[in-house]
Amino acid sequence: MRLVTGITLLLALGVLGDSKTTQPNSMEGTEEEPVHLPCNHSTISGPEYVYWYRQIPHQGPEHLIHGLNNNMTNRMASLSIAKDRKSSILVLPQVTVKDIAVYYCVLRGTHWDRQGCTCASADAYYALPPKGPSVAQTVTQPQPEVSVQEAGTVTLDCTYSTSDSDYYLFWYKQPPSGEMVFIIRQYAYERQNATNDRYSVNFQKEAKAFNLRISDSQLEDAVMYFCAYSGAQ
């Protein structure tokens, strides 16, 4: 016997990429019912794919589905792309409380510049479970693209806004295969900047800046980079 039915879930939507996509801030859905998440990408060009990701609180972005001009379906979701490719809809077949997350619509081309790093701007909106109000945080990457010579050093900028004092910041990279790869994490109360092999960060809590530094750049570094925020609670 089910003791609780008809729970309304709040799903948040964010934007990753170079501001080519627009989404509503949030969508509501009923437990075990399908939810349709829209995305507008009216400036899409021929070789660009539509990617959808989700980020569950305290975790990194997770690839859900992608497509070029056909409807796609997998075990997690369905993607319906309009004939003119200027909009798409992500369908989550039966949502549960586990689906409360941030959902991102991303445009990604088939060409990857092997002389530099392609970076993405991000405006991320995070939703709490239905028993409490939603809280919005914003993460911004101002550089649409950065180039660096092989073996050189490059810095990728990231700023954020939050009223919280206890939180985590992350950097991820996305190779052409599509998965999100964790790079580095910084806790808000750590005094020392985090380092991980060739990666290090310049974390300035007062200025709300979290910049990634990549030293000894290699050809494999020519991928997309994402800055992310997660509350500590």
TrEMBL record:
Keywords: Cell membrane, Disulfide bond, Glycoprotein, Immunity, Membrane, Signal. SMART domains: IG, IGv. It comes from the Eukaryota. InterPro entries: Ig-like_dom, Ig-like_dom_sf, Ig-like_fold, Ig_sub, Ig_V-set, TCR_complex_component. This is Ig-like domain-containing protein. The keyword Manganese does not apply. The keyword Repeat does not apply. Residues 1-17 form the signal peptide. The lineage of its organism: Eukaryota, Metazoa, Chordata, Craniata, Vertebrata. Residues 18-105, 133-233 form the Ig-like domain. It is found in: Cell membrane.
